Amino acid sequence: MTAPAADPRDEVLTHVPALRAFALSLTRNMPDADDLVQDTIVKAWGNFDKFTPGTDLRAWMFTILRNVFFSRKRKTRREVEDPDDIYASSLFERPAHDSRIAFSEFLRAFNRLTPEHREVLVLVGANGYTCDEAAKVIGVAVGTVKSRTNRARVRLCELLGVTGGQDFLPTLDGATAAVMGRSASRAA
Amino acid sequence: MSETHGKPGGDVQPAEERMTAEQRRQIKRDIDENLRLTYKAALEEEVPDRFHQLLAALRDKDTQP
Predict the structure, then answer these.
(1) Pairing with A31, which of A42, A86, A98, A183 sits 20 to 30 Å away (CA)?
(2) pLDDT interval class at B10 (50, 70, 90)
(3) Does residue A157 sit in the same domain as residue A175?
(4) Would you say residue A146 has pLDDT above 80?
(5) How many structural domains compose chain B?
(6) Interchain contact B37–A (C-beta under 8 A)
């Protein structure tokens, strides 16, 4: 006999800090992030019958959170992104010899990325998910996560005024570079 | 502004503007480190009361007949 699975409801509180951190990367302000986390918890609570006990509850709630965020964003179109502007301008003029990035300028550049790029960088770069795990949270193919992460880093470099950002990524193989080349003109 | 943004194949960067390998590694380290710092700051914040109250309310609702 196996012991009955723990009730995922008991675990929710322990994931609230991570949910808030992830939400903040999407909303870029804490009041909206907290509203998003609250909606996520309420939605999760009503759907725990669909959660598979023993699987990653945090990842499951991340998926709910990002789905709530992106579906609301599509509906309201409140947040106007301007990818052309992001492509067109660097925030900083950086001499080629200056490779250090201050936290304040990083944050300013990060907040100028599209939410799709912020999402993937936070999941992979900050939260430490593998591309495979991030792909499951976002609901896309693992290749999409890889190329989107690379594009997000390149765009961060552009915003940070880092010359040569296109070729600083060491993980680009031929296939990825080809995919990036084909899709470079699209907002990812 | 460079015209090469978004065009991985169209490399017209003057050689003197290229970073050294060490500078590129430094940039990547800084990006990763700043990403972790941004996330960590939010992670370490205390959970606001509203979430304790919300979870208590949801539990109460579950236990009501």
Answers:
(1) A86
(2) very low
(3) yes
(4) yes
(5) 1
(6) yes
Query: Given an 8 Å threshold on Cβ–Cβ distance, is B18 in contact with A162?
Result: no
B25: CB partners within 8 A, 6+ apart? none
Instruction: Please indicate whether, in this complex, the C-beta atoms of A153 and B39 are within 8 angstroms of each other.
Output: no
Chain B within 8 Å of A45 (Cβ-Cβ)? Answer: yes
Question: Domain boundary at A78, A97, A129, which?
Answer: A78
Q: How would you label B13-49 residue by residue, b for 16+ Cβ within 10 Å and e otherwise?
A: eeeeebbeeebbebbbebbeebbbebbeebbeeeeee
Asked if residue A89 and residue A52 are part of one domain, the reply reads: no
pLDDT class of B5 with cuts at 50, 70, 90: very low
Residue A28 one-letter amino acid: R
> Alpha-carbon dihedral of residues A91, A101, A22, A30, nearest 10 degrees?
-60
Domain count, chain A: 2
Tell me if A74 is assigned to some domain: yes
Contacts of B5 in chain A (CB under 8 A): 87-88, 158
Find the domain containing B33 and state its range: 18-63
Residue A53 counted as domain residue: yes
Which of A7-21, A130-144, B24-38 shows the lowest per-residue confidence on average (mean pLDDT)?
B24-38
Mean pLDDT of A174-188: 38
Between B4 and A7, residue with greater pLDDT: A7
Query: In this predicted complex, what is the ipTM?
Result: 0.73
Token reading at A99: 């490779």
CA distance B61 to chain A (A): 11
